[in-house]
Design brief:
Length: 305
């Protein structure tokens, strides 16, 4: 018996990294799995291949599970709608979608090509919209469904050189929140995970010095994709039915629950504010409560457990 017995799950980006581990674990936990992967390069610039998705689906089948493959792009709505229909036709239903599919096109914002901005937004943010919109009516009708979408500390906290990725991943947070709010009465859940894991996306980040090299080596050993998959699969299970609208991170054997934006300081002035009074009074008074502009590593400066 597994926590996903009788469930049908779509896993995007399932040919490599976190998606691969999510698909394999979902299969071991009893789910029938549609493994989706474009089979393209890290930047999403090539035509892709059906091989990676089918390789993972075959591993699930060889282990006694049920799996099929799909190599369409999550950035295309009609393709995602067809993917959902494929899962329902093959397995008789659809109960959860895990969506870690992604690409990277890093670069300093003042040098960023508009095409690189659009490509990342299309896969990450539009991709998250596509998988939720294409399935949300089905989930609402059956009054059951779970989305596990993927955000990043690049969006929640920030990282230099990733404006496109950060904007998309913070957008995923807003999307998930509304899907969770609107789905509450229909038992449709949505949660997001910010993963720390050694994947080809992380491997693409340049190593500039010995300290960075040492940190990368620790990441390889201490932050694995299979550790992220444990939470992703758990959030699809009926046992997590009371968990929705939340932001998690997985870092090695650590699981974090993030807070969400709420006011931290307020000031009022009976006669109203002017630019001068804001500069002289409000901003200095609020300064102690500002959030610094440190990157993700400044929030997680220690080795994973």
């Amino acid at each position: 018996m597994g926590v996903l017995d009788g469930k049908v799950v779509i896993v995007t980006g399932g040919g490599n990294g976190i998606g691969r581990e999510c698909a394999l674990l979902a299969g071991r936990e009893g789910a029938s799995v549609l493994v989706n992967d474009l089979g393209g390069g890290l930047k999403g610039e090539d035509a892709g291949s059906s091989g990676p998705a089918e390789d993972v689906a075959k591993l699930i089948r060889d282990a006694g599970g049920k799996a099929i493959s799909n190599s369409d792009s999550v950035s295309e709505y009609d393709a995602v709608a067809a993917m959902c229909e494929q899962a329902k036709k093959a397995f008789g239903g659809l109960h959860a979608i895990i969506n870690p599919a992604g690409i990277l096109r890093d670069g300093m914002f003042h040098k960023m090509d508009p095409a690189d901005w659009k490509a990342v937004i299309d896969v990450h943010l539009h991709g998250a919209f596509n998988v939720t919109r294409a399935s949300i009516e089905h989930f609402r009708e059956q009054q059951s469904g779970s989305y596990v979408l993927f955000t990043s500390t690049s969006g929640l906290i920030g990282n230099i050189g990733q404006a496109n990725y950060a904007a998309a991943k913070l957008g995923v947070m807003g999307l998930s929140r509304i899907v969770a709010m609107e789905g509450l009465q229909k038992n449709v859940r949505s949660n997001i995970i910010a993963p720390f894991a050694w994947t080809r996306m992380i491997a693409s980040i340049p190593v500039k010095d010995e300290a960075s090299a040492a940190r990368v080596e620790r990441m390889k050993n201490g932050m694995r994709a299979d550790q992220v998959a444990q939470l992703a699969v758990a959030l699809c299970a009926d046992g997590a039915k009371d968990t929705t609208g939340q932001i998690f991170a997985v870092r090695g054997n650590e699981v974090f629950l993030f807070n969400q934006p709420r006011p931290v300081r307020a000031m009022a002035r009976l006669e109203g504010w002017t630019p001068e009074s804001l500069i002289e009074q409000a901003l200095p008074a609020m300064k102690a409560s500002y959030t610094d502009v440190g990157a993700s590593a400044s929030v997680f400066p220690y080795d994973p457990v």
